[in-house]
Design brief:
Blueprint: H1 32-39, H2 43-50, H3 55-87, H4 92-113, H5 116-121, H6 123-135, E1 142-145, E2 148-154, E3 157-159, H7 161-179, H8 187-191, H9 194-208, H10 212-229, H11 234-252, H12 255-265, H13 278-290, H14 315-348, H15 352-377, H16 394-412, H17 417-443, H18 467-471
Antiparallel strand pairs: 1-2, 2-3
Helix pairs in contact: 3-4, 3-14, 3-16, 4-16, 6-7, 6-9, 7-9, 7-10, 7-15, 7-16, 9-10, 10-11, 10-15, 13-14, 14-15, 15-16
Main location: membrane
Function: Peptidoglycan polymerase that is essential for cell division.
Protein name: Probable peptidoglycan glycosyltransferase FtsW
């Protein structure tokens, strides 16, 4: 018998060709994907993956998931003492945070599956609901805490409407400016109805409740959306001047805020006993006690009634005390990865709404993180905003995870991302089906490699043929008939 071999077309010489040509030792053709699988991750392979259309999706998913998981661990550690003192159970605050985390993850998964068109349709209902809930703060449902009136009580639980107002402002602003993209260079066209009346009313209600930190975040979202939409730069000079004057006026009208500013600007905090220095000094004590490598998880000293709000606004100080410099730098690195992923969405998006919504989320999450971290380490005055995805607080965690769901939906809409994600999902489904088929066959007593039995009737040569004999193929080029099984009747039934 004559054996013929199909000639192989030689590829380009040397590694790194477009088709992965070149000859490997032994005459085998070397392909980049297989070579990288053998050699492990390299800088080139990491760069190729980062340039892929699915990279923003997975970077958002992984960074947000790690921040949320770290937040749950640190909330348990930082709140255990206070929970035990107040309720006799060290897990009260932690279990509440877990409840909101589970609900937030479910909402994020739902939001990630929503198409971008559905998010656009939610713009008006979301902002109307946000305005209604924020106005309810000043009714009988409102709750005041530490001088701020920014909560409402629903079914025995307190909800902070301004956190959901941030997400509503992002979606509404992106939808309005995307619809006005042809006239967005005109200040009046771009300002109505985003700034006048929606933005002014929503921010005004928050400031009326004396929550300056949240009001500043909302104002930054508004300005960032207008900047990303392409409003002329000269317009922002006037807006910046008005914003600075407004913040200065609100700060000057509050003795507590002025005290925080004086503590931040002046070198007066020689000890915690100085008015206004207690929280700032104990946050510095926590970071200093942690040193390079930290005291160990759960070993914080400042959480024992010394540092106020250790599981909320100042949770980064507890992270630094227990996990040291690696812990704090890890938090910064995760926020940096999240910022890079959102920037990729902004730069690669072809749809105006996608670009603006991602820009609004970038300003919200990263701007709030900068304010919180700056307050903890003393570079900014204490403003009183939580660290997104990490700090304790049900409303803040729910709203942030819903925003992550929006980002995942936007990342799925990037060119080539949906097809790549569908291809990877189908590959995983095929792998799972193969694994489960093998396990189910083994569970029924089948031998490894036996053919899977289906309900379809197929022709067969013998009723008593075993699966191995029935499915065994004859050698290529052989004219010998397959052996007849022994012990069965010689005719067909």
């Amino acid at each position: 018998m004559t054996t013929t071999t199909r000639p192989r077309t030689p590829g380009p010489a040397g590694p790194g060709s477009a088709r992965g040509g070149g000859s490997a030792p032994g005459g085998a053709t070397a392909y980049p994907s297989r070579a990288r699988a053998r050699q492990g991750w390299t800088m080139e392979s990491v760069g190729d993956w980062l340039r892929s259309p699915v990279a923003p999706y997975y970077l958002v998913l992984v960074s947000a998931g790690l921040l949320t998981g770290l937040g749950l661990v640190m909330v348990l550690s930082a709140s255990s003492v206070r929970s035990y003192v107040e309720s006799g159970n060290s897990y009260t605050v932690f279990l509440a945070q877990v409840f909101y985390a589970v609900a937030g993850v479910a909402l994020a998964a739902l939001g990630a599956r929503l198409p971008v068109v559905a998010w656009k349709r939610l713009a008006w209902p979301a902002v109307i609901l946000a305005l209604g809930l924020q106005a309810a703060v000043f009714t009988g449902m409102g709750v005041e805490f530490q001088g701020n009136r920014n909560w409402i009580e629903i079914a025995g639980r307190t909800v902070q409407p301004s956190e959901f107002g941030k997400l509503a402002l992002v979606v509404f602003g992106a939808a309005v400016l995307a619809a006005k993209r042809k006239v967005v260079h005109r200040v009046w066209q771009a300002s109505v109805p985003l700034v006048f009346p929606v933005g002014i009313v929503l921010v005004g209600l928050v400031l009326q409740g004396k929550d300056l930190g949240t009001g500043m975040i909302m104002l930054a979202i508004l300005v960032g959306l207008l900047w990303a939409a392409g409003l002329p730069a000269r317009w922002f000079l006037g807006v910046g001047a008005v914003a600075v004057l407004g913040v200065a006026y609100l700060a000057a009208g509050s003795a507590n805020r002025m005290q925080r500013i004086q503590v931040w600007l002046g070198d007066v905090c020689d000890s915690p006993q100085v008015d206004g220095c207690f929280q700032k000094v104990h946050a510095e004590y926590a970071l200093a006690d942690g040193g390079w490598w930290g005291l160990g998880l759960g070993e914080s000293r400042e959480k024992w009634g010394l540092l106020p709000e250790p599981h909320n606004d100042f949770i980064l100080a507890i992270i630094g005390e227990e996990l040291g410099l690696p812990g704090t730098m890890g938090v910064l690195a995760l926020f940096a990865v999240l910022a890079y992923a959102i920037f990729r969405i902004v730069s690669q998006a072809e749809d105006m709404f996608t670009r603006l919504a991602a820009a609004g989320m970038l300003i919200w999450l990263l701007g709030q993180a900068v304010l919180n971290i700056g307050s903890v380490i003393g570079m900014l005055p204490i403003i009183g905003v939580p660290l997104p995805l990490v700090s304790s607080g049900g409303s803040a965690l729910l709203a942030a995870l819903m925003g992550i769901g929006l980002l995942l939906s936007l990342a799925r809409s990037l060119p080539g991302a949906r097809e790549a994600l569908a291809q990877r999902t189908s590959s995983l489904d095929r792998t799972y089906a193969a694994v489960t088929t093998g396990r189910s066959g083994a569970g029924r007593g089948s031998r490894p490699g036996a053919a899977r039995t289906t309900g379809r009737t197929t022709p067969r040569t013998s009723t008593h043929a075993t699966p191995r004999a029935a499915t065994r193929a004859a050698p290529r080029g052989s004219t010998r008939a397959a052996p007849r099984p022994r012990g069965g009747p010689k005719g067909r039934r």
